Amino acid sequence: MLMFKVLHIIILIFVCVISGNELEFCEVFDEYAENSKKCSIRNNFTQKRYILYDVNPPEGFNLRRDVYIRLAVFLKRLIEKDEKYQWQLVLPPWGNLYHWQYPNTEFQEYLFWENFFDITSLQQYIPVIEMYKFMEEYSSGSKEIQLDCVYILQNDDEMFKTGKFEDKNEVTNCTRDSLQYYKSKRHIYTSPFWGYHNITTRNIKCLKFHGTASNLYQNLKPIQYRSIMFDHMEIALHDEYGSKEYWKARRSMRYNSELYNIAKNYRKTFLNSTDENDNTDRPADWTKEKSRRNARGGPYLSVHLRRRDFIIGRKESIPTIKNAASQLRQKMDKLGLTVLFVATDGEQHEFEELKSYLPQYKVLKFVPSDYVINKFKDGGIAIIDQIICSYARYFIGTYESTFTYRIQEEREIVGFLPETTFNNLCKTDKKCPRNGQWQIVW
Ligand SMILES: Nc1nc2c(ncn2[C@@H]2O[C@H](COP(=O)(O)OP(=O)(O)O)[C@@H](O)[C@H]2O)c(=O)[nH]1
Ligand SMILES: *[C@@H]1O[C@H](CO)[C@@H](O)[C@H](O)[C@H]1NC(C)=O
Ligand SMILES: *[C@@H]1O[C@H](CO)[C@@H](O)[C@H](O)[C@H]1NC(C)=O
Ligand SMILES: *[C@@H]1O[C@H](CO)[C@@H](O)[C@H](O)[C@H]1NC(C)=O
Ligand SMILES: *[C@@H]1O[C@H](CO)[C@@H](O)[C@H](O)[C@H]1NC(C)=O
Ligand SMILES: [Mg+2]
User: Which CATH number applies to 2-235?
Assistant: First the structure.
């Protein structure tokens, strides 16, 4: 009897020790003892850990940029706290976004961040690497890249029904909804993985999740996993929206310098706008940038005139073209400006219509050359529009458009007065929703 008890205790201790580490260690491979050993040696060999992520497919470019900031701040804090591992964020290639319209969809797949952003600037905030670099580093010669764990975040529908929100991070059964984009063959999942057919995983976990990005800390399990991916990362919220840290991450998102140069040439040629005249000079290195409110901006008013899906989805706040023209005219007259720069996703005929209501003003939009279309595509052209808007003396945006928010942030960084930035078109002169003013913190 005593023997039995002692044995029982020993077994208990043994189980605890094992489940505390070794047994969980690289569980991906634990069907194969031999692989499991290899795997632990492999994980021990390098301290590099890779975090990958993706966002709900219908989301646009500018919300995706916001999701990057959530991860960047999370990673920054993680690195401060945990020096044992070399954490790296793998930048998810851009592709096939819903709003991207240039024909030939293949041509808009697998676009790396360097097309749009300055990678060195991003790296001055956190260690990021492009997907192709990750593939090189991680595959070590094999044809396939197997991620150690993929978490699919899911909203807790119950919470949305009751309205009682509390942090949640619970492994749950995957719904068909969560798995709809993944294909499974003998427990090996492939696709979507940003369109790569050679990325797979054996280990998908669905998470009922509510809370900020840092609540995902417990899911990293760096002893067990060398690479993890979070899908539907937009479900995780900002840890510190609008804080100094948030703005640091935002400031590190400098665009590809060629995009700045294209915008600069356009401003000079068509808008009589130069950094010297407009007091908008900036240091090349974002970490050297300082708080200021004396940017003047070029002698033009810029507007972000969001159309397409917003005309249908945001009826309450989107004006007719005619009404927008009237609002713009009033403002230009008040400011003594005669040049209007229009950034829009609207149809050509909507732009022509706008112009027809403003005959006494110079109304312009950026028309990309074939070179720009081929090299930078929809994403780059949109950024050029955003840059030109962010150097105007006065900006008017579209209510609740993330495209507009990114312009407002850029103007906060460049150093404009908030009243020249936080304005939006109204449904009519009388019906005017107001966006919040998220001012920069240095
Ligand atoms: N070039 C250009 N594209 C735009 C403009 N407005 C919207 N778009 C396109 O439409 C997309 C809108 O989606 P998103 O980035 O999610 O912004 P939101 O939907 O306005 O919050 C952008 O990413 C662009 O591809 C614009 O003024 N100029
Ligand atoms: C990992 O490496 C450390 C020393 O670097 C060693 O003490 C330990 O036994 C190794 N663990 C495994 C599972 O190989
Ligand atoms: C995976 O596929 C991509 C695109 O087809 C290719 O560029 C990459 O080299 C491949 N990676 C490996 C490890 O085979
Ligand atoms: C998950 O699925 C299993 C097997 O289908 C079932 O037994 C279990 O109750 C489910 N769990 C939840 C939380 O729905
Ligand atoms: C361009 O701007 C400069 C300085 O702001 C001004 O002196 C000049 O007259 C402007 N040129 C035109 C053609 O408007
Ligand atoms: Mg959108």
Answer: 3.40.50.11340
